[in-house]
Amino acid sequence: MEHITDIYKYNPQPCVATIGSFDGVHLGHRAMLEELRAYASGAGLPLMAVTFARHPRLLFDGNCEPFLLTSNSQKVALLASAGADIVAELDFDTLMAGMCAERFMKEILKERLGVKLLAIGYDHHFGKPCDGEGFECYAEYGKKLGIEVVKLSPFAVDGIAVSSSVVRRALAAGDLTLAYKALGHSYLLEGTVVHGAGIGRRIGFPTANLLPAEEMMLLPADGVYEVLFRIGSACHKGVMNIGVKPTVDNNRLRTIEVHLLDFSGDIYGKSVSVEFVRRLRGERHFENIEALCSQIEKDVARVRNGI
């Protein structure tokens, strides 16, 4: 797979392409790429996924809450696994944001990337927003530029059209089952182990505190989760708490902590990844430390025994 990070140094070649943020690279995105593969194979051309190094929302709303489902590195790897021969990451800035769709198709897609056929999602729009502009307009622009434009079919799970927004809502509700159905893979969080307040160790359940690698990554709803914790090639079962620890911490600061089963060692500063398996319960306040510890013991037993 070829990864383009500077389109102005790229030697364009004829290709079949689709464009989008591809946040999460969910089953809808994968279905699009699979459908597009037929066009690419028939034309004998490589398949390119055109995406953005920075999600467009971050340019227009710098104060938005965390919402990303994948880091750039995750997204590129997932697009490659979904069948893209080339992933082109555009540096989305104010200049590009100000381009109308026709100019974008001409200067970026045609002249810089060599796109011969452009496939877009059934409800996708690109370029500077313009009232009434949609697929028919893109197709007309394409005729002038020598780019064939086709519309791809929607993809649904349980009668719901899959989108990044559907995944975000599922995670915000702690519904890992729906999130997995839409993504086609477990939700993953990457980060670094940092020092915490040491409360977990003091009550008998030491935890690894996680600082996400991408600060705009969406965290699932506060609560307790079964996770798989990966350090290099090693994988450990864990119990993760996302929340403010209302029983033991008056600061009300939201933290991400993982108690690893059958593990000991110094992993501070290590880069790790956490795969969400299931939600065990919501976070809640306990009357005392003893009650909290009793519940944690039950959480650990459930994860250890798979119940």
List strands and helices in order, with pairings.
Blueprint (H helix, E strand, L loop, with lengths): L1 E3 L10 E5 L7 H17 L3 E6 L3 H5 L11 H10 L4 E5 L3 H4 L3 H10 L4 E6 L14 H11 L2 E4 L4 E2 L2 E2 L2 H9 L3 H8 L4 E7 L4 H4 L5 E5 L10 E9 L2 E10 L11 E6 L10 E11 L7 H17 L2
Please identify, by name, the CATH architecture of the largest domain. Answer: 3-Layer(aba) Sandwich
Helical fraction = 25-40%
CATH topology (fold) name of the largest domain: Rossmann fold
The geometry reads as elongated
> CATH superfamily name of the largest domain?
HUPs
Main sheet attributes: strand count, strand direction, barrel closure? 6 strands, parallel
Notable characteristics:
307 residues; alpha/beta; Rossmann fold; Elongation Factor Tu (Ef-tu), domain 3; 2 domains; six-stranded parallel beta sheet; six-stranded antiparallel beta barrel; 10 helices; 31% helix; elongated
Describe what this molecule looks like in 3D.
With 307 residues, this protein is α/β, with parallel strands linked by helices. It has two domains: 2-161, HUPs (Rossmann fold, 3-Layer(aba) Sandwich); 186-305, Riboflavin kinase-like (Elongation Factor Tu (Ef-tu), domain 3, Beta Barrel). It contains ten helices and 14 strands. It has helices at 27-43, 56-60, 72-81, 94-97, 101-110, 135-145, 164-172, 176-183, 199-202, 289-305, and strands at residues 2-4, 15-19, 47-52, 86-90, 115-120, 148-151, 156-157, 160-161, 188-194, 208-212, 223-231, 234-243, 255-260, 271-281. The strands form three sheets. The protein has a six-stranded parallel sheet with strand order 1-4-3-2-5-6. α7 packs antiparallel against α8 (176-183). The radius of gyration is 22 Å and the shape is elongated. The mean pLDDT is 91.
